[in-house]
Amino acid sequence: MKEIQSSMAGTVFKVLVAPGDSVDTGQTVLILESMKMEIPVDVQMDGTVGEVKVVEGDFVNEGDTLVVLS
Predict the structure, then answer these.
(1) CB atoms within 10 A of CB 57
(2) What range(s) does the Lipoyl-binding domain occupy (predicted)?
(3) Measured between alpha carbons, how far is 52 from 41 in angstroms, rounded to an integer?
(4) Which of 11, 38, 53, 66 has the most CB within a 10 Å radius?
(5) Does the global pTM surpass 0.85?
């Protein structure tokens, strides 16, 4: 299992995947909003989404787990 973590503090603007979705390296899985900028969060490996740990509107800190790939 691989955890995708937040690289910065911000608000979850949009979740683009759901559990069971297949993802490819470089695919954007969600978008964070910080200081009026939208920051895409991409996966670094192929896999299947096992769990999405956040919902739109959640505030996350740097290092928080956002998505778990199986």
Answers:
(1) 9
(2) 1-70
(3) 13
(4) 66
(5) yes
